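Students often ask why we bother encoding 3D structure as a string. The short answer is that it lets us treat folding as translation between two languages. Here is a chain of 452 residues written in the first language.
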Amino acid sequence: MEASKISSDALFISRIRIHRHFLLATGLVLVALLFHAPIAVAAELPKLDAANTAWMLTSSVLVLFMTLPGLALFYAGLVGARNVLSVLMQCFSITCVVTLAWVVVAYSLAFGDGGALNAWYGGFAKSFMSGIELKTVKGTIPETVFAMFQLTFAIITPALVIGAYAERVRYSGMLLFSLLWLLFVYVPIAHWVWGDGWLQKMGLMDFAGGTVVHLNAGMASLVCALVLGRRKGFPDTHMPPHNLTMSVSGACMLWVGWFGFNAGSALAADGSAGMAMLATHIGAATGSLAWMFCEWVRYGKPSVLGIVTGMVAGLGTITPASGFVGPLGALVIGAAAGVACFFATNFMKRSLGVDDSLDVFPVHGVGGMLGTTLTGVFAAASLGGVGYSEGGTMGSQVLVQLTGVLATAVWSGVVTFVLLKVSDVLVGLRVTAEEETEGLDTVLHNEKGYNL
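And here it is in the second language, the structure alphabet:
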């Protein structure tokens, strides 16, 4: 009996110990799960990458450098001496106006979430940069940096259009038109292509702005040139650049700044950015030489203006393809840009008599169309590109690219026409013939670029 009782007690104590160990182990597991849960959630949150942030800060500076002073000097040297300050003033003013509009509402409309209508516009939730704080992250970079980088694109696009109406537009008309154009032309197309809009969902490949920037500005420039009409004396009066040294200096700045424009569009310091930078440089160099040789053969001498214009054509045309194609694609696209844009420029001025003052449409518009379309070809893996999405083919991708080109051209062209008419009614667009003869520097700003 005594032995049986001892055995029973031992068994009872053993069971208690087992239960105690089980409860302890269960408790430890629960505690571990409780502590692990927030860790797992935190791991899923976006994480800031210092290298990517540093590169995007640098890229933002480079793209702003393209407008001020790059584009400003490039354009200012190409006009007459009596209009040099007006062009510089326009570039500077657009930078300021677009910045304020971007903060108030444009960034939200371009990169916000439009809810049920997000395919078309981004909504107003991010107006006045609402919700963008010190630690807000977009991908792997601060959203402040992302917003600033995209702002520099929004600045240079309407600034490119200046080249179409240079030497004959009122300052007040330019300001109003540029603001309206940003809101009703640039912002919707930027959202369609980069803000999770309908063209992006369709699979349009536009790495850095073949449609959003170059074709968009090019179509607007063509409409501006047609609506405003020719400059006084065009095409019979020779209108050479007043300071090619200034223009070449600005062109060199554009070339350097374009590395931020294209390679920065990777939004990371990675292989995609590296390939985009290499493709950009190849496109610029090839476009320059292709234009120069076309001019040399046709007119007997290569010109400085020709080689720098070919550079801009090469850069604009490689822009949509830069992160999607390899060196071979960049060579072909750059060469095609130099040849196509050279003949387009001559055809526009000599055959059609369209006074697009600084050749924005034949360089940026034609280049944007050509580059966006050829992206669908040279993105093929067999040609050194990144390849197509699963199930995609060259034919299907080219069709998507052409859809993006057509949508951008139609929207930009039609809405630009309407905005020009509205601006003309409200404040007036074109200066008088007498004011044009005197020069916009004196008439509009009571200053002169040169006091010799």
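Translate back mentally: Residues 1-8, 10-16, 25-43 have pLDDT under 50 and may be disordered. Keep this in mind for the problem set.
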